[in-house]
Design a protein that fits this description.
With 465 residues, the chain is α/β, with parallel strands linked by helices. It is built from eleven helices and 20 strands. The strands form four sheets. A twelve-stranded mixed beta sheet has the order 4-5-3-6-7-8-9-10-14-13-12-11, with helices on both faces. Strands 19-18-17-20 form a four-stranded mixed beta sheet. A two-stranded antiparallel ribbon has the order 1-2. Helix 3 packs across helix 7, helix 4 crosses helix 5 and helix 9 packs across helix 10. The longest helix has 22 residues. The radius of gyration is 23 Å and the shape is globular.
Length: 465
Amino acid sequence: MRLPSILYPVEQAFRYLYGALPFSWRAGAQYRRLRRFLSEAQWWDAERIREWQTERLGWMIRYAYENVPGYRHLYEKAGITPADFGTLEDLPAFPLLEKSFVQTDIRAFTSRSVSPRNLTYLTTGGSTGVPVGFYHTRVNRWMEDAFMHAGWEWGGWIPDQKTLTLRGWFQGTPKRFFWYNPLRRELHLSTYYLTVETYPQYFQIAKQFAPLFIQAYPSAMTFFSRLILERGDAGVLQPRVIFLASETIYPWQRELIARAFPTARIFAHYGHTEQAGLGHWCEYIDQYHFWPFYGYLELLDSQGNPVPLGQVGEIVVTSFWNYGTPWIRYRTGDLGILAGNFCSACGRNFPILSNVQGRIQEFLISQYGRLVSFTALNVHNDLFDHVWQFQFYQDTPGKVTLKLLPRSEFSKNDLNRIQQEMSSKLGEDFSLETVCVEQIPLTPRGKFKVIEQKCSLDWIKETIE
């Protein structure tokens, strides 16, 4: 029910007063208990973590079997029951969960033990073509905050400080592209309306707000940084930390952002809307430390076998906290490289991914089925200096369109050079067309995709090992 307009000022005043209270107090007792647990458990030895995970996994498997018809069907079809799980080594015997299973019948994968009033419907971003719908419960709210804040603290985060966000949470309008949330002391700038023309307004608002922290999509922060450097505004905004997430982070993006914000530390984490796996960089190294108390991580090849250290595998996760739609051995479609299960720099016994290479959809496909990641194209020189943004579009194997959003100084020579160098890097089994465009649309969630992949990807998973 909407409040009468006369009461809006009263409501807003209450939000500001309530937001002035410490977040840990407002978040509730469950949040505080979990934060205390994480502050201690992050230093447990490997054996104690395994014991905790074994107990939690056994409980989640029993919960899903008893309350979620889709899991009972999967397990009965595989001839397996919760009684067959006793150690972590038993987990591979349980079936993998495909996105399509939940897409096809969300009711079958929704817990019967949770009241509909305690369910919140969400969807994934739809990077596989069709968004996957699922349910969270109230547990996900305080749980996610507790883990996120514990991980951000490794990067220098402090609670109750001003934060600027450039993410898809807030869309706004062309005339109202910012919104302040006093409950979290966050100023949201819409990624949908950030352009060369609107940059002065965005920058002035950010400057007046003077945030201590910035949260952003890497693509949005890259574009904002390009504009800052172009206008000679580098170093004016001085956040302590820039937190990046939700997209693949490329080295050239980090370099560009660091030039625009020379005083800021760049800190990243891996996560997704499903809240089944979460990894932060630590205080000392820029590698993803996956929380063993958030979910159980597996890195598998195309045959479902664990990959050795240093090899690329698909990230498969089991959530310990999702009771609405449980995720057990869930294939995320994301790819990572396993670096080990212990960080000698920080001392945590966490699974470490040296790199998250992005989604399976972030590859280009040659006419012979060869896969080329954006990272492999090695865009580290001045090739795109006269371009605001660029995007690879593909709907047919072997044929790629490179879309360029040109800057004022862009010339025919730039176009020819980009065409020649990128054709050479892609190889002879690709046909490349380079075109200039006036706009490169964002996704419904306000993200910018470097590769817009429209080819069928069912067979691609079989080629990634």
